[in-house]
Amino acid sequence: YFVKKLIHFKFKTDEPHLIETAMAQAIKPKFFWNHKNRYETDFVAENPFYAFEVKYREKLSPADFKGLEQFKHSHPKAKTIMISKTKSQNTVPYYAIERFLEQHKIKPQQA
User: Fold this and answer.
1) CA pair distance 9, 36, nearest whole angstrom
2) DSSP letter string, 30-48
3) Which residues of 39-78 are buried (b: 16+ CB within 10 A; e: fewer)?
4) Who's near 100: CB < 8 A, 6+ residues apart?
5) What phi and psi values does residue 61 have, to the nearest 5 degrees?
6) Which ranges of the chain does DSSP label H, i.e. alpha helix?
7) Are strands 94-96 and 79-84 parallel, antiparallel or unpaired?
8) Which of 1, 27, 29, 32 is at a distance of 20 to 30 A from 17, taking alpha carbons?
9) Helix (H, G, I), strand (E, B) or coil at 6
10) pTM
11) pLDDT of residue 71
């Protein structure tokens, strides 16, 4: 199921939150997704139907992909994307944060 929620971010000055805020500006999601309060994705876009997870860290673990994997299992027609600082061995498609921000001409800025 989808959890409908307007995305209202409080502006934070630490880098991971700035990156996540920039991603939300680019993706313009309508939802986040939560499965039985156990798995979640950061953003869900409807058209096209994508789920995104944003991780701004040097190393990703298998647990970082569980939300996207569960989303794909629940919604087989959806596409899932990990937006991260680093590439992983996981089969979920990966998108580099820097490339994503550059393509969408977004520059995270502090207040």
Assistant:
1) 23
2) SEEEEETTTEEEEEEETTT
3) bbbbbbbeeeebbbbbbbeeebeeebbbbbebbbeeeeeb
4) 23, 26, 83
5) -110, 165
6) 15-27, 66-74, 97-103
7) parallel
8) 1
9) coil
10) 0.71
11) 92
Amino acid in position 6: L
Residue 79 is encoded by which pair of tokens?
Answer: 């596409």
Match 């805020």 to its residue by tokens.
Answer: 21
Q: 12: which 2 tokens? A: 């934070």
Contact 30, 47 (CB under 8 A): no
Closest CA to 56 of 89, 106, 17: 17
Separation of CA 33 from chain center: 11
Highest mean pLDDT among 5-9, 54-58, 65-69, 95-99 belongs to 65-69
Instruction: Name the one residue in this structure whose structure tokens are 């500006």.
Output: 25
The residues near 90 (Cβ < 8 Å, ≥ 6 apart) are 60, 62, 65, 82
The residue written with tokens 């550059």 in the block is 102
